[in-house]
Design brief:
This protein has 180 residues and is mainly alpha-helical. The chain folds into 2 domains: 38 residues; 134 residues, Arc Repressor Mutant, subunit A (Orthogonal Bundle). It has 7 helices and 3 strands, in the order H-H-H-E-H-H-E-E-H-H. It has a 3-stranded antiparallel β-sheet with strand order 1-3-2. Strand 2 and strand 3 form a beta hairpin. The longest helix is centred in the first third of the chain and has 34 residues. The protein starts with a helix and ends with a helix.
């Protein structure tokens, strides 16, 4: 009993000081949020989107791991396949919502991997196309089932109507996006 009383006496002031420090930090945080104009009703869905995107990225990364295709490569392969197997690099950048410099570097890597090749335009030789190779079509054939099965698994508990509503809500965010 004496040992216990000693421990409580020694820890008492330290615990009290820590509690005061926590209260002060909490008050400071709330003051900062108020002064910054934080709208919790706006922050909650944004944080939910960020968390969902992180979980989705991990799920697709796991699904694609055995296929030898990354998520971004899969998106490129899908865009090219959906557009007759080839797109101008500037068009690919627009489809992927990436900068031309990012797409150039991505196509460089995919060309090294044998998934795409660069082809000059027939009408305008200045235009450079990314075109699927046979290896690219094969990679897409390996990756697509893994991605689509993951999509179905993720959305299995959500009704078709709710999926449509969710897509509609998310589509409303894109036009509202502005770059600083």
């Amino acid at each position: 009993m004496t040992e216990m009383a000693t421990t409580t006496q020694t820890e008492g002031p330290a615990v009290g000081a820590r509690s005061s420090a926590c209260e002060a930090a909490s008050a400071r945080f709330h003051d900062l949020m108020r002064a910054s104009g934080r709208d919790v009703d706006a922050s909650r869905p944004v944080l939910s989107l960020i968390r969902a995107e992180d979980r989705l990225a991990r799920a697709f990364e796991r699904a694609l791991a055995a296929t030898g295709v990354t998520e971004v490569q899969f998106n490129v392969l899908m865009e090219l396949a959906a557009n007759d197997g080839r797109l101008p690099l500037c068009g690919l950048a627009q489809h992927l919502l990436k900068s031309p410099a990012n797409v150039t570097a991505l196509v460089d890597r995919m060309e090294r991997d044998g998934f795409v090749r660069r082809v000059r335009g027939e009408r305008d030789r200045r235009t450079v196309f990314a075109e699927l190779t046979e290896d690219g079509w094969s990679a897409l054939g390996r990756a697509a089932p893994a991605v689509f099965e993951t999509e179905q698994r993720i959305l299995a508990e959500i009704s078709a109507g709710d999926r449509e509503h969710l897509a509609s809500l998310l589509d409303q965010i894109v036009p509202a996006e502005t770059e600083p």
